[in-house]
């Protein structure tokens, strides 16, 4: 079997395994819209609180961004931890470790693209905003999903435990949500470097102006590349390449 | 909880064994998964310390007026913003940790529970054993959260504050167990990632004229108790009673789902 054939087989198997579970289908299709609605409702409650800064359309934009990104993160974590044993068997059968990692990332990418599409349609339905550039807004959501997907893979590769990995991811994600959304005022430069800070800015400029903030785009791409390198290193050090 | 397969209890339990000893045996077996996992134990200490600590440090040192339940009704009280954030983030942290741990505890124990059921254990006994483990995890987590919270906040009534934290954490622990019985792990974690954050931190923000439906959320009374214990001259203790009732309801729901399974 060629490398491309092996990739196709690994991705198809990963997707089939994932989509075979009814709860996973629900997770992809039902839960992101619920999260978006919950964000909308929660932001309505705190919109008039003195001292809190709730930017215009923060609920819809934030909800769309986090619903997509964090789902990709969980997919990354559970894909890597759950598929560790089957992947080792496939490596024994002739698959290469980097091919398995790429297959996992491609699977997460395809699932994230599906979630992005669903979330974006819900966002358009809920929001009064008409995005200045649909394409840029969708790309911003995909970048956010890719960043968190890689974070999930990295956490899964390093910790190799679903519970501990979930806890780490959840605590990172929840802090990131508030820090990058800007609802709770913070006076610290560290806020500018949370993973979703720049995708959030990208989404904001795509929706409001239809432009790409070059600095944010560069930092977001740097995040993706850096996480990809770290993930590859973690998988290699874990011994999958042996 | 490591990803190893659990073994059954070392002592066989027949159906005429007293319930208490069966619960003790199931608790001992289940708790081994926790205390034999140093990474998990470390996370139960490090994560709350990081999460509560970072919020108390990073918010501006402003004063905000909030509406707090007191023994004489609701009062508007000006409080320091870092103190308010600490009082809100502390229960969120407990709810996240205990809720997700509860979900995994129930999910992971499915196979072991089947074997124990064959050995004569009842479903309710096994769920009580899981809750006993959750209580132990809650105690540890609340201890760490309280210690870190005291760096940024000095509650006027620390006993009620700790009780509020424990009730919020255990309520979400029961919700986590319930979610674990109904949904898959990934869907459960996804729900528990957002639910405590949106409910305890945003919906329960102490403002005047809260919507009626906000009061029907599971964390409402625990949050009211925590804020009252932190900032009010006299604690609105009726919230403690209501929070206990909510916890019992959540526990009963989880037990019902377990028996239906």
UniProtKB/TrEMBL annotation, chain A:
<feature type="transmembrane region" description="Helical">
    <location>
        <begin position="101"/>
        <end position="123"/>
    </location>
</feature>
<keyword id="KW-0472">Membrane</keyword>
<feature type="domain" description="ABC-2 type transporter transmembrane">
    <location>
        <begin position="89"/>
        <end position="234"/>
    </location>
</feature>
<dbReference type="Pfam" id="PF12698">
    <property type="entry name" value="ABC2_membrane_3"/>
</dbReference>
<feature type="transmembrane region" description="Helical">
    <location>
        <begin position="63"/>
        <end position="81"/>
    </location>
</feature>
<dbReference type="GO" id="GO:0016020">
    <property type="term" value="C:membrane"/>
</dbReference>
<keyword id="KW-0812">Transmembrane</keyword>
<dbReference type="GO" id="GO:0140359">
    <property type="term" value="F:ABC-type transporter activity"/>
</dbReference>
<feature type="transmembrane region" description="Helical">
    <location>
        <begin position="135"/>
        <end position="159"/>
    </location>
</feature>
<feature type="transmembrane region" description="Helical">
    <location>
        <begin position="25"/>
        <end position="43"/>
    </location>
</feature>
<feature type="transmembrane region" description="Helical">
    <location>
        <begin position="166"/>
        <end position="186"/>
    </location>
</feature>
<dbReference type="InterPro" id="IPR013525">
    <property type="entry name" value="ABC2_TM"/>
</dbReference>
<protein>
    <submittedName>
        <fullName>ABC transporter permease</fullName>
    </submittedName>
</protein>
<keyword id="KW-1133">Transmembrane helix</keyword>
<feature type="transmembrane region" description="Helical">
    <location>
        <begin position="217"/>
        <end position="237"/>
    </location>
</feature>
TrEMBL record, chain B:
<keyword id="KW-0812">Transmembrane</keyword>
<keyword id="KW-0472">Membrane</keyword>
<feature type="transmembrane region" description="Helical">
    <location>
        <begin position="189"/>
        <end position="207"/>
    </location>
</feature>
<feature type="transmembrane region" description="Helical">
    <location>
        <begin position="158"/>
        <end position="182"/>
    </location>
</feature>
<feature type="transmembrane region" description="Helical">
    <location>
        <begin position="84"/>
        <end position="106"/>
    </location>
</feature>
<protein>
    <submittedName>
        <fullName>ABC transporter permease</fullName>
    </submittedName>
</protein>
<feature type="transmembrane region" description="Helical">
    <location>
        <begin position="240"/>
        <end position="260"/>
    </location>
</feature>
<feature type="transmembrane region" description="Helical">
    <location>
        <begin position="39"/>
        <end position="58"/>
    </location>
</feature>
<feature type="region of interest" description="Disordered">
    <location>
        <begin position="1"/>
        <end position="20"/>
    </location>
</feature>
<feature type="transmembrane region" description="Helical">
    <location>
        <begin position="127"/>
        <end position="152"/>
    </location>
</feature>
<keyword id="KW-1133">Transmembrane helix</keyword>
């Amino acid at each position: 079997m060629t490398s491309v054939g092996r990739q196709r087989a690994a991705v198809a198997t990963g997707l089939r395994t994932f989509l075979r579970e009814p709860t996973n289908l629900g997770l992809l299709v039902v839960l992101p819209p619920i999260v978006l609605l919950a964000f909308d409702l929660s932001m309505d409650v705190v919109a008039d609180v003195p001292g809190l800064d709730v930017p215009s359309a923060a609920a819809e934009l934030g909800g769309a961004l986090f619903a997509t990104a964090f789902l990709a993160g969980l997919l990354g974590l559970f894909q890597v931890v759950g598929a560790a044993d089957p992947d080792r068997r496939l490596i024994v059968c002739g698959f290469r470790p980097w091919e398995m990692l790429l297959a996992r990332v491609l699977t997460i990418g395809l699932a994230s693209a599906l979630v992005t599409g669903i979330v974006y349609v819900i966002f358009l339905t809920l929001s009064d905003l008409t995005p200045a550039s649909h394409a840029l807004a969708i790309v911003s959501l995909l970048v956010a999903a890719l960043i968190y997907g890689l974070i999930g893979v990295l956490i899964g590769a390093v910790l190799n435990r679903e519970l501990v990995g979930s806890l780490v991811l959840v605590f990172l994600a929840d802090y990131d949500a508030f820090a990058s959304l800007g609802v709770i005022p913070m006076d610290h430069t560290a806020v500018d470097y949370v993973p979703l800070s720049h995708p959030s800015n990208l989404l904001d400029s795509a929706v409001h102006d239809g432009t790409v903030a070059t600095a944010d785009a560069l930092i977001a791409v740097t995040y993706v590349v850096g996480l990809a390198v770290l993930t590859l290193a973690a998988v290699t050090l874990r011994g999958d390449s042996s | 909880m490591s990803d190893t397969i659990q073994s059954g209890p070392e002592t066989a339990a027949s159906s005429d064994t007293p319930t208490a000893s069966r619960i003790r045996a199931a608790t001992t077996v289940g708790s081994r998964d926790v205390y034999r996992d140093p990474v998990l134990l470390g996370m139960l200490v490090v994560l709350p310390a990081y999460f509560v600590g970072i919020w108390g440090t990073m918010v501006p040192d402003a004063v905000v007026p909030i509406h707090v339940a007191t023994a004489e009704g609701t009062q508007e009280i000006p409080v320091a913003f870092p103190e308010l954030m600490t009082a809100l983030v502390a229960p969120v942290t407990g709810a996240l940790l205990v809720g997700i741990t509860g979900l995994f505890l129930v999910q992971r124990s499915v196979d072991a529970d089947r074997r124990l059921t064959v050995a004569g254990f009842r479903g309710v006994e096994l769920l009580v054993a899981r809750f006993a483990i959750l209580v132990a995890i809650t105690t540890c987590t609340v201890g760490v959260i309280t210690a870190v919270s005291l760096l940024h906040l000095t509650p006027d009534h620390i006993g009620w504050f700790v009780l509020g934290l424990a009730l919020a954490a255990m309520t979400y622990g029961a919700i986590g167990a319930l979610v674990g019985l109904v949904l898959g792990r990934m869907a459960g974690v996804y729900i528990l990632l957002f639910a405590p954050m949106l409910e305890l931190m945003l919906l329960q923000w102490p403002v005047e004229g809260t919507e009626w439906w906000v009061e029907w959320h599971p964390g409402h009374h625990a949050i009211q108790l925590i804020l009252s214990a932190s900032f009010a001259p006299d604690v609105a203790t009726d919230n403690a009673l209501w929070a206990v009732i909510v916890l019992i309801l959540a526990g009963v729901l989880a037990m019902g789902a377990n028996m239906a399974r």
